[in-house]
Structures are given as structure tokens and as C-alpha cells.
Amino acid sequence: GFTQTYGVDFTDTHAAMAHPTAIRTVLAWGVKNGYFIYQTDIKLAFISSELQEVVYMSQPPGCEEPNGHVWRLHRG
Q: Is this prediction's pTM over 0.70?
């Protein structure tokens, strides 16, 4: 995304991750209270989806095309 800085961490990717102790605590609490537990990846669910509206984005620093073009996104 736009959180990287060109020349510093531009090629790095980061993913938020829950601590295993937190996961075990939530699962134990859910089982104790009789809840159904489901797993889903909300953030990545929309990456390959077709966009319903026209979306344009400016180019990230370090990737600018000459003439100041913008990119049209076809997928989320």
C-alpha cells in the first residue's frame, strides 16, 4: 500500500497477526460459552473482486509515469 517509503522499505510487505495466546483465549472463551467459531479473512476477501464503480488511483512515490498519468483499477 501507501505505507512504504521509496528507498527505505518499498519492497517489504507486512501483515498484522494475532498472538497465539490471544487466539487460544478467544477460542476457549467461545467453547466455554457455547458459541460457534468461524474463521474468515475479511481483508483479503475483496482483493480479487470486480469493482462496481470506476476507481482511479494516483501512482505511489517512485513509480510515477511521465505526464502525471493515473491508474484505473479493475479489481479491488
A: no
